[in-house]
Design goal:
Helices cover 39% and strands 17% of the residues. It is an alpha/beta fold.
Length: 561
């Protein structure tokens, strides 16, 4: 081996990432992986420098959602890795392909509690599909090959690889290269699809429910064609509302937090549930009450890419281990279904949905439902909406009809702070599409500093901060459980418009509904020119939910005491 042929671990890692199709990496630099950063210089991978590792990991998750390929985040050891945990948890619960690369102490320093040393196998063991540490630079192609396959095969999810600092700078003879990963795919058996067809044909009140990871536009188009041909009602699991065009006559609503009571009743009353890709978790099942474990009242056909998930919580009448793409293709091979038996049922469910998304007034001069409905009528069909967690999201989820695949970026894990970093990633991936991030005042302060990242890279996102001066969701629960006893939920906020201006963004304060429309037009013009923008919306604290004010929640709790 000559010095000319030898390569550092960092160079081998950068090459392996490129072989597997990595275009962008999000990260916060650290001395523990300087050799990898150096190897990126002049290469094909764009490194986007973030302002906090949690934001970088959330950007990687958003990238994975948007592309179907693993989003890559790079962080340093110790506090860098712990900061990134929130994004890894999102990717795990959302079934998003992601790879987190973590700098690690040198190999001869391990097990001494060296500076910022952490055992990442223990730390991330319950948050990732696979956690490993690369001790030998010659095995980098092997580890990266496994990482990309693990992140994308079966139930997609995050992989964490720790990178000892000296391993990255070590020079070794280049090992044999590997080909680009190809996700492994499980397909349904003909017998299972025949059984599914027989059960559906005999149903009277069927309901399909879509969710989970692993989808793409083509597979969802196949599902839509099948549903519309059979007049089959289809609902979306929690924060998966863009899986079926909400304008389709078969789309009947969002089975998640703030569910339409009429739809909740239909889930309970269905004689057959066809669940494809969704785990049927706590948020989708309203705390396991819409579909009760272990033996649901409804006949359950559960299609999922991971055998270990099937019959783990729910005893399915028919469990099908299948990748959602393969299942969607198999639907096209089924004989046509006669949907006349449930046509009226589907039509009534659709009418319930359309009534549910009509705007409702709330206390105060700023009406979120009217604003969201106006956005739905104004934005182009390919606009991407991102949000984190909080009561402000209930207006978006209820009143905005999603019209295309991956126009919604929202964490099913309920992680605050997701909206702004997700929007940054979305604009980096789709620079020609409008990208809007919604955030509450508490939510924005979690990762709002990534607005500086947007400004640095000329990514024209628009952030809409809905400010009610409190942690609204927690206050809602607090008033229900401990009415009038306010503790820990009030917020004294900065001037978000001034803060955004300090980051270099366009900004404006909006206190009334009619002020929003011209402010939005101006902000979008700035965003289209490559300058991020922020609108600071002041909403009445009484407007705690679309259907109940703060005082109404409190009074109901006091009356029940």
């Amino acid at each position: 081996m000559t010095n000319q042929s030898a390569k550092t671990g960092g160079e081998l890692l950068a090459e392996a990432l490129a072989i597997h199709g990595t275009e962008i990496a999000f990260g916060v630099p650290g001395e523990s992986y300087l050799a990898l950063l150096d190897a990126l210089v002049g290469g094909s991978i764009r490194f986007i420098t973030c302002r906090q590792e949690g934001g970088a990991a959330m950007m990687a998750d958003a990238y994975g959602k948007l592309t179907g390929r693993p989003g890559v985040a790079m962080v340093t050891r110790g506090p860098g890795a712990t900061n990134a945990a929130a994004g890894v948890h999102i990717a795990f619960q959302d079934s998003t392909p992601m790879i987190l690369l973590v700098g690690q102490v040198a190999r001869d320093m391990r097990d001494r509690e060296a500076f910022q040393e952490v055992d990442y196998r223990q730390m991330y063991g319950a948050l990732a599909k696979w956690v490993a540490e690369i001790d030998d630079a010659r095995r980098i192609p092997e580890y990266l090959n496994r990482a990309f396959h693990t992140a994308t095969s079966g139930r997609p999810g995050p992989v964490v690889l720790a990178l000892p600092e000296d391993m990255l700078s070590e020079r070794v003879a280049p090992p044999p290269a590997v080909d680009r990963y190809a996700p492994l795919e499980a397909a349904p058996t003909p017998a299972a699809m025949a059984d599914l067809h027989r059960r559906l044909a005999a149903a009277e009140r069927p309901l399909a429910l879509l969710g989970g990871g692993g989808w793409d536009a083509e597979s969802l188009a196949r599902v839509r064609a099948f549903a519309e041909a059979a007049d089959l009602p289809v609902a979306a699991s929690f924060r998966c509302q863009d899986y079926l065009d909400n304008r389709s006559a078969c789309y009947v609503g969002h089975v998640g937090i703030g569910i339409n009571p009429a739809l909740a009743a239909r889930v309970k009353e269905a004689d057959l549930l066809l669940v494809v890709g969704a785990r049927l978790g706590e948020s989708t099942t309203a705390g396991y009450t819409l579909v009760e474990p272990p033996r649901p009242r409804q006949q359950l056909i559960h299609v999922y890419p991971q055998a270990e998930e099937l019959n783990r919580v729910y005893d399915a009448d028919l469990g099908i281990v299948s990748d959602v793409k393969a299942f969607a293709r198999a639907l096209g091979d089924l004989a046509p279904l006669d949907g006349s038996r449930w046509a009226a049922h589907r039509a009534a469910a659709r009418a319930d949905y359309e009534a549910h998304i009509e705007p409702l007034p709330v206390p105060g001069a700023l009406q979120m439902a009217d604003i969201v409905r106006w956005l739905a009528e104004t934005l182009p069909e390919d606009a991407i909406l991102a949000n984190g967690a909080g009561n402000y999201t209930t207006w978006v989820h209820r009143f905005f009809p999603y019209r295309g695949w991956r126009t919604q970026l929202a964490p099913t894990s309920g992680s605050m702070g997701y909206g702004a970093p997700a929007a940054v990633a979305a604009k980096a991936v789709h620079p020609d599409r409008p990208v809007i991030a919604f955030a509450g005042d508490g939510c924005f302060m979690m990762h709002g500093q990534e607005l500086a990242t947007a400004a640095q890279y000329g990514l024209g996102i628009l952030v809409i901060v809905v400010d009610n001066g409190m942690y609204g969701t927690i206050r809602m629960h607090q008033e229900r459980e401990y009415p009038t006893r306010v503790s820990g939920t009030d917020l004294r906020n900065p001037d978000f418009a001034a803060l955004a201006a300090a980051y270099g963004a366009h900004s404006a304060r909006v206190e009334r509904t009619e002020e929003f429309f011209p402010a939005f037009e101006t902000a979008m013009a700035e965003a289209e020119a490559g300058r991020p923008a922020l609108l600071h919306l002041i909403i009445d604290p009484e407007a705690l939910t679309p259907v109940q004010s703060l005082s109404q929640i409190r009074e109901k709790a006091l009356g029940a005491a």
